[in-house]
């Protein structure tokens, strides 16, 4: 790596309540993958006071301040450290993360191949299983033992054959049955009394047994992949690998939407079987589709998430989930219970951030670079309130790879602010400026159209791309976001990694911006959302920038949802606008001329998005894809919603497994990889540039 460098220096280390914080000299040894510390720099030649292996560690910046971070080793040991300032913390965190990733990946690469290991499979079953005898000396450790044993010279380890894997599958099926019996026995205990189903030790037993079975299933999947790779190319067409579940013919491997048929299960609803098997031919699903805005109808869905409902009733499930999590643990691969879900996909949530299209369109009408930057900040800060549905913190559906969402907004031209001044009302209906003529010379419509498309372009890591444009105003925005979730104790933190760019083609300006972190607080009582972190907005051409701070609530006192920021001219370092308030309530903008404007977000008019009816949507469009989950949640049928959700997730895992086995890369539909980001395949800046070139050539 370009940044694999050994660094050293003083950091404060938290020892205990009595000793508190102490300065220690830390050394990052990249070659060995170690973080060591000494009493001081002079004692560096002595044995270190402490050492952490970084392979498998989690490096977590703290949300309590901008200086503190933690290093959570795979062994369970933790260092809580504090740098002198935010810049130094970022330096240490980034270097530690790079070293951790390098050595974690190295472990996987350097592991001995499976053919050099021996597998001893003990007798199946347990002492209580009918018809199964168990030796007295057999214990839980020997039930499924994978060991590194030295073999006599000249002895070769036999390659695992399918019948051996069938034996393993049968053993694991028995273990899974016993684990289900254990869970059922615990859940059948009374809710009150001496021993209850909410007993902390029993919850931990449930979590441990489930984690063990998940681990064994992962190992079994690795064995399947190893055997499939060894036999690759030697199987005749149509051969079925009988130990894969669900059983799928090799001739029908899933390739970016190629048809695949799952066995119909009569005990599942037809809608669940449809979710497991729905897939379109490759040439249909992966070709970009032009959505006609005239086919879209004004959205009538209004799913507010203000009811605790099932969250109150499922407290034991939340406790069970928490018992499986570690502080700082990455939640990307953790399957969360259905009852905490919103009734919309994450892709649709990104669209709901555009619910004030009049403010978005008004940005390009600013008469000066200063005014356009201020207008963008105003729009940016008003977008988060409507993006959240209700006061209760619930989680949108995790989009599956290839999922898309389309919508549009129509905005009367009379309701969009023009270049009437910085602090003019963004919703004034009396302001009308000179509007551009239709490029084709046709009669102009009395409204602007903002079109939006989003796509889940990656599953691991989970990355979404979204794009919006207003052709009439020559403006568009392109963004990609990687959501990283972490468990923080009694809250969950979501970091929005990525970048967006607003293009004002009329002015030749580009505004880059980032997104704040989100936190779900008080997850055991009444969960609520707050935003935190610092975001920056920059326009390189004009030299204007904005710095916005979303403040998390202090432990004692302080206001909720507070935000502050300023817009300045970088060349002169002059602040031209300051903002303060709450991002979900009232914002106060103070301009350089001394004037002040207040924006009450609860009273801002919301423009409903326009969406195609379900029957006109493709099978991978969000609302059609998740329709059965959404309907079940609306009906309050959590079990049915969970069944539909599991069917979608199983289909995604099976498709991902088959693509890995056949080494088939995923092809996106609307977005193209561009460096570290993703760009819409036909952005407005390319369309306009091509049209201008064509016009120049014709002249």
TrEMBL record:
Region Disordered, residue ranges: 104-137, 416-440, 638-658
Database matches in SUPFAM superfamilies: Oxysterol-binding protein-like (SSF144000), PH domain-like (SSF50729)
Predominant location category: membrane
Biased composition (Polar residues): 117-137, 416-433
Subcellular localization, as worded in the UniProt entry: Endomembrane system; Endosome; Golgi apparatus
GO biological process, one term: lipid transport
A matching Pfam family: Oxysterol_BP
Domain spans labelled PH: 4-101
Keyword Zinc set for record: no
Family matches, as InterPro entries: OSBP_sf, Oxysterol-bd, Oxysterol-bd_CS, PH-like_dom_sf, PH_domain
Keyword annotations from UniProtKB, A to Z: Acetylation, Endosome, Golgi apparatus, Lipid transport, Lipid-binding, Membrane, Transport
Cellular-component GO terms for this entry: cytosol; endosome; Golgi apparatus; membrane
Record keyword Transcription regulation present: no
GO molecular function, one term: sterol binding
Protein task: Plays a role in regulating ADIPOQ and FABP4 levels in differentiating adipocytes and is also involved in regulation of adipocyte triglyceride storage. Weakly binds 25-hydroxycholesterol. Interacts with OSBPL9 to function as lipid transfer proteins.
Protein family: Belongs to the OSBP family.
PANTHER family for this protein: OXYSTEROL-BINDING PROTEIN-RELATED, OXYSTEROL-BINDING PROTEIN-RELATED PROTEIN 11
Quaternary assembly: Heterodimer with OSBPL9.
Protein name: Oxysterol-binding protein
Natural source organism: Sylvia atricapilla (blackcap)
Organism ancestry: Eukaryota, Metazoa, Chordata, Craniata, Vertebrata
């Amino acid at each position: 790596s370009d940044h694999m460098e050994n660094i050293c220096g003083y950091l404060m280390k938290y020892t205990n309540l009595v000793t508190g914080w102490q300065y220690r000299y830390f050394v990052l040894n990249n070659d060995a993958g170690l973080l060591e510390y000494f009493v001081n720099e002079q004692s560096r030649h002595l044995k270190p006071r402490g050492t952490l292996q970084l392979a498998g560690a989690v490096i977590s910046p703290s949300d309590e301040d901008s200086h503190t971070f933690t290093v959570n080793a795979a062994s369970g040991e933790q260092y809580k450290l504090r740098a002198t300032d935010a810049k130094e913390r970022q330096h240490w965190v980034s270097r530690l993360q790079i070293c951790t990733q390098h050595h974690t990946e190295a472990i996987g690469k350097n592991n001995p191949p499976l053919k050099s290991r021996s597998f001893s499979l003990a007798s199946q079953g347990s002492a209580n299983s009918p018809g199964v005898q168990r030796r007295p000396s057999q214990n839980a450790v020997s039930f499924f033992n994978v060991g590194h044993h030295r073999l006599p010279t000249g002895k070769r380890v036999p390659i695992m054959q399918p019948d051996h894997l069938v034996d393993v599958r049968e053993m694991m099926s028995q273990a899974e049955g016993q684990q289900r019996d254990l869970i059922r026995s615990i859940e059948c205990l009374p809710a009150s009394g001496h021993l209850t189903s909410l007993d902390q030790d029993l919850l931990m037993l449930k979590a441990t047994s489930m984690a063990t079975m998940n681990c064994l299933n992962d190992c079994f999947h690795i064995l399947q992949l190893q055997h499939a790779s060894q036999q690759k190319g030697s199987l005749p067409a149509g051969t079925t690998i009988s130990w894969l579940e669900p059983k799928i013919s090799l001739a029908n491997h899933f390739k970016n939407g190629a048809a695949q048929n799952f066995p119909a299960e009569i005990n599942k609803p037809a809608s669940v079987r449809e979710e497991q098997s729905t897939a379109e031919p490759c040439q249909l699903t992966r070709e970009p589709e032009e959505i006609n805005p005239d086919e879209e109808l004004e959205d009538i869905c209004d799913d507010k998430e203000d009811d605790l409902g099932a969250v109150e009733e499922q407290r034991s499930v939340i406790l069970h989930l928490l018992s499986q999590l570690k502080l700082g643990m990455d939640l990307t691969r953790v399957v969360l219970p259905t009852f905490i879900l919103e009734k919309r996909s994450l892709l649709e949530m990104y669209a709901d951030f555009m619910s004030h299209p009049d403010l978005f369109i008004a940005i390009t009408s600013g008469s000066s670079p200063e005014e356009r930057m201020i207008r963008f900040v105003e729009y940016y800060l008003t977008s988060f309130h409507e993006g959240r549905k209700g006061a209760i913190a619930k989680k949108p559906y995790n989009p599956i790879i290839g999922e898309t969402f389309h919508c549009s907004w129509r905005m009367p031209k009379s309701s969009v602010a023009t270049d009437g001044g910085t602090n003019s009302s963004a919703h004034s209906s009396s302001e009308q400026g000179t509007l551009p003529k239709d490029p084709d010379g046709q009669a102009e419509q009395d409204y602007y159209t903002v079109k939006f498309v989003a796509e889940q372009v990656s599953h691991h890591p989970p990355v979404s791309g979204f794009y919006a444009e207003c052709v009439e105003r020559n403006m568009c925005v392109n963004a990609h976001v990687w959501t990283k979730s972490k468990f923080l104790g009694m809250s969950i933190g979501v970091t929005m990694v990525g970048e967006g760019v607003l293009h004002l083609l009329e002015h030749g300006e580009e505004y880059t911006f980032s997104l704040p972190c989100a936190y779900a607080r008080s997850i055991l009582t009444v969960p609520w959302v707050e935003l935190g972190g610092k975001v920056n907005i920059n326009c390189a051409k004009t030299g204007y920038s904005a710095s916005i701070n979303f403040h998390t609530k202090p432990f004692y006192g302080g206001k909720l949802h507070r935000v502050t920021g300023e817009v300045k001219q970088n060349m002169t370092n002059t602040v031209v606008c300051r903002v303060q308030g709450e991002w979900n309530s009232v914002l106060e903008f103070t301009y350089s001329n001394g004037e002040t404007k207040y924006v009450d977000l609860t009273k801002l008019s919301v423009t409903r998005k326009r969406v195609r009816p379900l029957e006109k949507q493709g099978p991978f469009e969000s609302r059609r894809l998740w329709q059965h989950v959404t309907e079940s949640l609306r009906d309050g049928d959590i079990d049915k919603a969970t069944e539909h959700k599991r069917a979608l997730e199983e289909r995604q895992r099976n498709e991902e497994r088959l693509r890995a086995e056949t080494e088939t890369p995923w092809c996106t539909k609307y977005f193209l990889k561009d460096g570290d980001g993703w760009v819409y395949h036909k952005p407005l800046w390319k369309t306009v540039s091509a049209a201008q070139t064509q016009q120049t050539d014709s002249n």
